[in-house]
Design brief:
The protein has seven helices and no strands. By secondary structure, it is mainly α. The longest helix has 14 residues.
Amino acid sequence: MKVAEYIKNQLATNPAWAVKALVKVYTLQTMDEQITGQTSNLNGIGFNGIDSKILSSFAEQVNKGRNLSVKQMTIVFKKMPRYHKQVASFIPAEKMVEIEKNMAVN
């Protein structure tokens, strides 16, 4: 399994990975995008126009200390794998090496 596939899998199945990535990608949105919940800058960073409103609202909910419901997590698991490249870009190098080593063993 390639690293990209591993990350996609984690984002689709692991609540800790998915929620942490959700919040991190939300922080990459521009301030106006965070305020409006809509993508206005086509810069390849943050959520796309289709996902922006719902995923931004979920990230804001998490940032307020509230948990996501089962239904919301199902949506997060479905949508977050498409952001795997952004997620890979903010995984620290030492953690990426650890992931690659673990993949080589399995």
